[in-house]
Amino acid sequence: FDLASILTRGEDGTPLANPPLIRAISKDPVLSEVKLISEPWDCGGLYQVGSFPNWDIWAEWNGKFRDAVRKFIKGSEGQKRALATRIAGSSDLYNYHQRKPFHSINFVVAHDGFTLHDLVAYNQKHNRANGESGRDGCNDNDSWNCGAEGETSDVGVLALRKRQMRNMHLVNMVSQGVPMVVMGDEYGHTRHGNNNAYGHDNHLTHFQWELLETTRDSFFRYFSGLVSFRRDHPLLGQAEFLGKADITWHEDNWSNPESKFLAFTLHGHGRDLYCAFNAHHYFVKVTLPEAPGGKSWHRVVDTNLPSPADFTPEGIAGVQGQYNVAPYSSILLQLQ
Questions:
Q1: What are the residue ranges of helices labelled H in 217-312?
Q2: DSSP state, 113?
Q3: How far apart are CA 189 and CA 204, in angstroms?
Q4: Catalytic positions, written as ranges
Q5: H helices present in the chain, as ranges
Q6: Segments in the chain below pLDDT 50
Q7: Where in the numbering of this chain does the Isoamylase 1-3-like C-terminal domain appear (predicted)?
Q8: pTM (2 decimals)?
Q9: What is the residue-wise DSSP string for 148-194?
């Protein structure tokens, strides 16, 4: 339900605690059995992420997940606690009554706003083609062009952009909740900085099948492979909120706003996962958790490596002791 918060307002626009339409849908014997997802805000400024009237049925687009991921990955200060909370399933928003982690719809990109590619290629919107003199579209995108605005031939900038796209997709795939992605992001679709392109019926909004083919063995392989890895791994997308025995945060620097490194281990099923995100501009050498007898860590993802080494679903053995995590990159290891 697009801009669903408008459905919670009374006749005079006042937000209602028990809006009759939402209640009727929630109590209907047929409608209550389908997946109900709200975009929990509206054009009048009513923002209800975590508070949308839900009767323990409605899920929500988690806009706070989007904001935390974008800010942390681009290197904003003071975002580590927020990102950790979102990765763990946003219990601060959804762990009450009968709600579950799957009531959080996690996303980095939605149908409007920047595409995943443009999120790492533009600092500002470029909406002149919309005919409104650039007045339309959101001005606060939490984006970073990685050193050049728009199209560039700079090899370093292009490599950084690819890492950042991989990083944001990895966060979404390892977080508790339901991941949502936008068609076209799997090959790096660009709208050339237009963040409000809904009115166009052209290359800005059309799916580019030929571009998909050019990335089939590189970014598309990484993108789709991680989706499959998440689907097949029991520790990702759990039905209940995580307890202390389910996750270990490898962190003693929570209160330092300048700290931009976050690492954790998910435990269970003998297939523990270790994940680390480095949003610093320098390498961070980490000491890995000790593997139990007879097992070892295998590298599944290192976003700093070129394809196909960036994603190896079966895992690369021999990762022990320490790992040097590259600037603006992330890793995923699996215990085998």
A1: 219-232
A2: S
A3: 9
A4: 2, 39
A5: 20-27, 63-74, 80-87, 91-94, 116-119, 155-174, 209-214, 219-232
A6: none
A7: 251-313
A8: 0.96
A9: SSSS---HHHHHHHHHHHHHHHHHHHHSSSEEE--TTTTTT---TT-
